[in-house]
Specification:
alpha+beta, Glutaredoxin, four-stranded mixed β-sheet
Length: 178
């Protein structure tokens, strides 16, 4: 059982985790897209120097093959790790590591992936990043809001007709939603 004194992510567990290349080799879906994105990513020299200057860094990533954010975000860090010998990157399936995932819930409730856990040379957590850059989350949320508003207006009459039908169906069937 994991307690506050006994972290789930130990050095032994980190070292037993799959490398990025092993993870990609085992992917069941989106493998080609992951490799394509890895090939496309370019890391500026000044960014590589910054990462190399960090000293030993261990990075543990929780994910799953079907995650869209993982397909865009993991290749960025994988490209960094491939060019920085001080970085050891490990990638694991979220659902096989729920004890660790549940210690890194997004907003305290979501098992969002990818979840990047940054560890120092002693395998102590120093930082983490969940899902995607906050600035991109704000962009996505604003765009989604605009799309929802446009679609609601565009489909206003069919929407209302479907609500009329659904209201009757729910009451007639005595359906209760959790």
């Amino acid at each position: 059982m994991t307690t506050a004194q006994t972290p789930a992510l130990t050095k032994e567990r980190f070292l037993a985790a799959t490398t990025f290349d092993e993870y990609v080799e085992r992917m069941k879906v989106n493998k080609e897209k992951m490799l394509q994105h890895l090939e496309e990513v370019q890391i500026p020299a000044e960014d590589l120097e910054w990462w190399r200057s960090r000293g030993k860094l261990n990075v543990y990533v929780l994910t799953y093959d079907g995650c869209g954010d993982a397909l865009y975000n993991i290749p960025v860090f994988a490209k960094i790790a491939k060019q920085c010998p001080n970085i050891d990157l490990r990638v694991v399936q979220r659902d096989e590591n729920l004890d660790i995932m549940d210690q890194h819930l997004n907003q305290g409730i979501y098992r969002s992936v990818p979840c990047f856990i940054f560890l120092d040379e002693n395998y102590q957590e120093i930082a983490n990043l969940k899902e995607r850059a906050e600035s991109m989350t704000r962009v996505f949320e604003q765009e989604q809001l605009e799309v929802r508003r446009r679609l609601r207006e565009q489909y206003k009459e069919p929407w209302r007709a479907e609500m009329l039908r659904e209201f009757k169906d729910v009451v007639a069937s005595k359906k209760k939603y959790p």
